[in-house]
Amino acid sequence: MSTNHIRRRTGHRPRYLRMLIVLSALIPATVCAGSYSASADVRSGTAARPFAASAPWNTTIGHYPSTDPRSAQMVRSLQPPVALHTSIVEFGIPVYVAGRSTPRYSVPCRVTTWGPCPFSGLSVPVPNGARPSTGSDSAMVVVDERTNAVYEFWRVHKQGRSWSAAFGAVNTLTGSGWGGAATGSGASRLGGGVRLAEIARGNIPHALALQTNNACAVVFRSPAIKTDGRSARSDCIPEGARLQLDPSIDLNSLGLTPAERTVATAMQRYGGYIVDIGSSALSVSFERDPAASGNHIGGIYRNAGLRWDYDSLGGVPWNRLRVVK
Asked: Stretch 22-41: mean pLDDT, rounded?
């Protein structure tokens, strides 16, 4: 199967659940010492803002870009309801930082028809206690700043003392953030994900990773290198398309929660790329809080005003999105 065609389907399902009653106070983004390093502990280095300064993830858009001729049609396809669902728990991305003492493994790929396994011949660091996401993607990312590598796993599984993955990618921290098969479009799993530390400090300095259930079949656009889209509708959105929230919106006047304001500001300045398919009209990837258990989103996200997995960020006028040409 060509890498430009369907690879897989993710399952970002919107939920309208009752509010989770969580009594704990702000939880630090670390657990038992020595088990693993959470990305919220990265206060310097390229893992804090990965990829080259000129990478698509790290470039701003501006107030007056050219818009796609089908922009209005594509944005209408995302409604109703007007929402940007937050993938925090089930499809939240666990991000780990490897150190000198991190155990290393041979990680074979269970899918053998997509080409050479990206982990073949490598000694892949996987911290003790690492856990993939609980959704059908079973995704996980390990950053090794010492070797400038980002190991990105799709459907990763540990059996006994051995790890395997259906497939994935190995990207470089100073590269473009696009390459391999960790996502349907070839985007890095690390690229565009909203990080725990970014919500804590109220600033996201990069474009966001978005998913939609209306991603075009076959057709994609740069920086995407392929697509897993299935939609043949005339209003489908190509993977690789960049969406921007109208920067003329005065966010200060909307009474937003800290999380809504932080995400909306990033969508005005950097926008977001469609990187994968999902089951909701539009969703955005978040880093999984390693201190959170079960279906809890964790204290940092909760204190920023997020309520549950798939929170809709409903205070933001997402109907004022546009697709950049």
From this structure: 33
Q: Which residues of 168-196 are buried (b: 16+ CB within 10 A; e: fewer)?
A: bbbbbbebbbbbbbbbbbbbbbbbbbbbb
Give 287's DSSP letter: B
**Cβ contacts of residue 116 below 8 Å, gap of 6+?**
none
What DSSP designation does 17 have?
A: P
- Which of 296, 297, 303, 243 has the alpha carbon at shortest distance from 270? 243
Q: What is the reported pLDDT for 105?
A: 97
pLDDT value at 13 more than 60 = no
Complete DSSP assignment for 84-119: -EEE-STT-B-EEE--TT--EE---BS--SSSS-TT
Residues 6+ apart with CB under 8 A from 18: none
Q: What distance in Å separates the CA atoms of residue 209 and residue 192, rounded to the nearest whole number?
A: 4
State pTM to two decimals: 0.86
DSSP state of 235: T
Let me know: does 232 contact 211? Beta carbons within 8 Å. no
**Could you please report the per-residue DSSP string of 140-186?**
EEEEETTTTEEEEEEEEEEETTEEEEEEEEEEETTS-SB-SSSSTTS
Q: By C-alpha distance, which of 96, 37, 26, 90 is closest to 298? A: 26
